[in-house]
Amino acid sequence: MALMLLLTVGGGGWFFYDGKFAWPAKNIVFFAKEAFDSGGIGESWPEFNESLSKIAQNTTICEDSMNLLQKAHSDGGEDQTWLEFSKSTKGKSVLNKVKESTAQEAFINGQKSNVTWDDYAKLKQYPKDKKSAMQRGEDGLNQFEGCYNAFAAATAKRDWAVYGVVSSGQQGWEVKNPKFHSASEIKGQITIAFCLWVGAFWILVNALINSRRVLIADANNFISEKGEIISFQSIYRIDTRKWAKKGLAYVFYDEGEASKKRAIVDDLKFVGADLILDRLKDRVSGEIVEFVEAEEKVYEKES
């Protein structure tokens, strides 16, 4: 019962946290990527804001979150920074070919609108194309590819996969493809949480009630968990077919010709229930039904 209580309380907490905090936060990341991509294709903020209501599907977005989305939209329309490029896959490839200072210098010059690659290559005496680079051997090819790619990357748009990790400054924005959770899904999580907590309360009450119950077998009587006093003489059958797998045994007793009842010996609820059952089997003269190798064995004890 304690384990079930722990599972229902913990499970309810998990579902409630997802519905109240985790999933709404993930939705903001999803909206931020949408805003970032919108800015990247040149869409204005009012245009995106108008389409956001359709994307959000009645999901409430607070003012602080809207400010984050607006910043993501603005950042998405800008060129990538050197730090972002250096952390990207293409940037790492460049840094494997040339020194970081050389690549960064090429990147900075690539940001200048009045400087072309031909002008920069001539100034630095770099190969201006792949053909001329190959004439200088492997070092010349690495120099061209590294510097040219760094120079060209300066005017490339920002990449969400890198921006979210390096520049956003927001926890959770490193997710490459964030998932959207609708208002109904979030409500469902919270509903499940409260259902589990109701179940936990029922388990707690049931555990407290059961904690006061006992099984007793004295010299002449069996006292059930409900407090019924059952004399050994009134017991006419004990069914133990579920004892091995479920820890349950059923005691059938007679309270007169018109009244036949059943009591339960539950080994999962009561410590020492096996001793109670052994005493009943020793003292009772009625039938004992057992399960032996997939066959039901019924025998009647001698009085």
Give structural attributes.
5-stranded mixed beta sheet; alpha+beta; 303 residues; elongated; 3-stranded antiparallel beta sheet
Can you characterise this structure?
The protein is an alpha+beta fold and 303 residues long. The chain has 3 domains: 2-78 and 161-189, no CATH class; 82-156, no CATH class; 216-300. It is 56% helix and 13% strand. The protein has helices at residues 2-40, 45-56, 63-76, 82-87, 89-97, 100-110, 117-124, 130-134, 137-153, 160-166, 183-210, 243-246, 273-283; strands at 216-217, 221-223, 229-231, 235-239, 248-254, 260-266, 287-292, 295-300. The strands form 2 sheets. Strands 6-5-4-7-8 form a 5-stranded mixed beta sheet. Strand 5 (248-254) and strand 6 form a beta hairpin. Helix 5 (89-97) packs antiparallel against helix 9.
**What is the number of E strands?**
8
Strand content: 5-15%
- H and E order: HHHHHHHHHHHEEEEHEEHEE
Number of domains: 3
**Helix coverage percent of residues?**
55-70%
Biggest beta-sheet profile: 5 strands, mixed
- Which residue ranges are poorly predicted, with pLDDT under 50 across at least 5 consecutive positions? none
Q: What's the shape?
A: elongated
Indicate the topology:
Elements: H1 2-40, H2 45-56, H3 63-76, H4 82-87, H5 89-97, H6 100-110, H7 117-124, H8 130-134, H9 137-153, H10 160-166, H11 183-210, E1 216-217, E2 221-223, E3 229-231, E4 235-239, H12 243-246, E5 248-254, E6 260-266, H13 273-283, E7 287-292, E8 295-300
Parallel strand pairs: 4-7
Antiparallel strand pairs: 1-2, 2-3, 4-5, 5-6, 7-8
Helix pairs in contact: 1-2, 1-3, 1-11, 5-9, 6-9
